[in-house]
Amino acid sequence: MLKKILKSYDYSLIIVVVLLAIFGLVMVYSASMVTAIQRYGFESDHFFVRQKIFLLAGALVFIFFALVPYKLYLNNKVLGTIVLLSLISLLGIFKFGTVAGNAQSWYEFGPLRLQPSEFVKVAVIVYLSAVYAKKQPYINQFNQGVLPPLAFIVMVCALVALQPDFGTTAIIVMIAGMIIVSSGMNFKTIIKLALLGLILFSPFVFILKDEIFSMERLERFSVLTNPFADGVAEDGGYHLINSYYAIGSGGINGLGLGQSVQKLGYLPEPHTDFIMAIIAEELGVFGVAFVILSLGFIVLKGIFIGLKGKDPFGSLLAIGISGMIGIQTFINLAGISGIFPLMGIPLPFVSYGGSSLLQLSIAMGILVNVSMFVNYEKKYKSNEKEGLKVVTNKTRNSFRA
Question: Which residue windows are transmembrane per the record (predicted)?
Answer without folding.
Answer: 12-33, 53-70, 77-94, 114-133, 145-162, 168-185, 190-208, 283-304, 316-345, 357-376
